[in-house]
Amino acid sequence: MNELTLHPNVYQTGASKGLVGLLERLWVREHTPGEGTIYIISGFANYNGGVRFYDVFRRHIDNGGRVVAFLGGSTSQRLSSKQVVRELLQSGAEVNLINRKRLMHAKSYGVCTGDGEKLIVTSGNFTGPGMSQNVELSVLLDSATAGEMDFSWEGMTQAMLGQRWDIHRPDIANPDDPAWQLLYDEEDRGLVLDESDEATMVVRLGHADTARIMAIPGTSAYKGSQYFWLSKDAFGFFPPLTILNRRGYKSTYSTMITMNFVDLGREEEVRVTFEADNNLDFRLGTGPLRGTQLAQDGDIAAITRRREGSYELRIYRDGTPLHTALTRYAISFIGHRGKMYGYLSNSEFDEVIGLRNARGARIH
């Protein structure tokens, strides 16, 4: 069955709600590990673009399959990162870097097995924002449709390799390989956020988020770690999740961020974790809120990304004017219990809460 999606959660013709859902269908639900070849073509790529699938790739390759990737590279522009290429190579994937003065804009993903060819043609890059946060259109063509138009992954990739392009195959064992000069470092502290990454996530909190916040210190309800549970579509909102904790094939990917708990007047380093082999949700550590009574079921949490790795957290109580104003941005569901989330630009958020006026000037 063919499918079309416009994400994030805008429109879909089938069960998949976005590009990640289509990839899960091709590479997980309808695919046997070790069967055939998985393909990735993307002009841009970063670590969080693949974090949902690194373990999928490892299982596939460990069982005899192949993963073949074509990514854009440049010595002067941030196209693909060292982190994503290193993780793909460590999983056993074959990575081809195309170094061109003109950007490689092609984005396509798929699989070739004994049952035929399947492919996704999309505007979404192999990046966190491309997988979840940006507005992207994707079309999945099933094996019957691909067969009718005589599509071949092998034919297309061989045609790409046959062009007079500057193509490199990076060697993970050789850090001096010139191919690594075509990649940027996501963990460079000097990186400046693109304006499109300066965003605020608005989350309507549920009981699981706030039970320990409302608990009395010393009671059984107070015990345990305090998290906010976020959507699995938060790949583009956080720095690279390169802290890997693997137990067998059960993996989590984490990163540390600096969080300014505005309502508490304090700043803490907290952990963000993606559970790649469990419920596929993101967990945001909010331990400083435990026992403070500052948030309860139904309140709004606004998480603002100010700089790379630097965030602010504000709580807006249910029934207040700002809660009402921010609720209209929480348009997508998390799970099946009515919990919702959404995004708005930082400039719009600042205007809504009164940090800036309509002309964008800071209000002191």
Description:
This protein is 21% helix and 32% strand. The protein is of the alpha+beta class and 364 residues long. The strands form 2 sheets. Strands 10, 11, 12, 13, 14, 15, 16, 17, 18 and 19 form a 10-stranded mixed sheet that branches. A hairpin with a 2-residue loop joins strand 12 (243-247) and strand 13. The longest helix has 11 residues, at 19-29. The model has no long low-confidence stretch (mean pLDDT 92).
SSE map:
Layout (H helix, E strand, L loop, with lengths): L2 E5 L3 E2 L6 H11 L7 E6 L4 H4 L3 H9 L3 E8 L8 H10 L2 E6 L7 E7 L2 E7 L5 H6 L2 E6 L1 H6 L4 H9 L4 E3 L30 E6 L2 H8 L12 E4 L12 E5 L2 E12 L4 E10 L6 E4 L14 E8 L2 E7 L4 H7 L4 E3 L4 E7 H8 L11
Parallel strand pairs: 3-4, 4-5, 13-17
Antiparallel strand pairs: 1-2, 1-8, 3-6, 5-9, 6-7, 7-8, 10-16, 10-19, 11-15, 12-13, 13-14, 14-15, 16-17, 18-19
Oligomer: single chain
Listing every helix as H and every strand as E from the N terminus to the C terminus, the arrangement reads: EEHEHHEHEEEHEHHEEHEEEEEEEHEEH
- Give the radius of gyration: 22 Å
User: Which consecutive residue ranges, at least 5 long each, have pLDDT under 50?
Assistant: none
Percentage of β-strand residues:
25-35%
Please provide the count of β strands.
Answer: 19
Biggest sheet overview: 10 strands, mixed
Helical residue percent band: 10-25%
Question: How would you describe the shape?
Answer: globular
Structural class: alpha+beta
Question: Kindly state the mean pLDDT as a whole number?
Answer: 92
Summarize the structure.
Helix content is 21%, strand content 32%. The chain is an alpha+beta fold and 364 residues long.
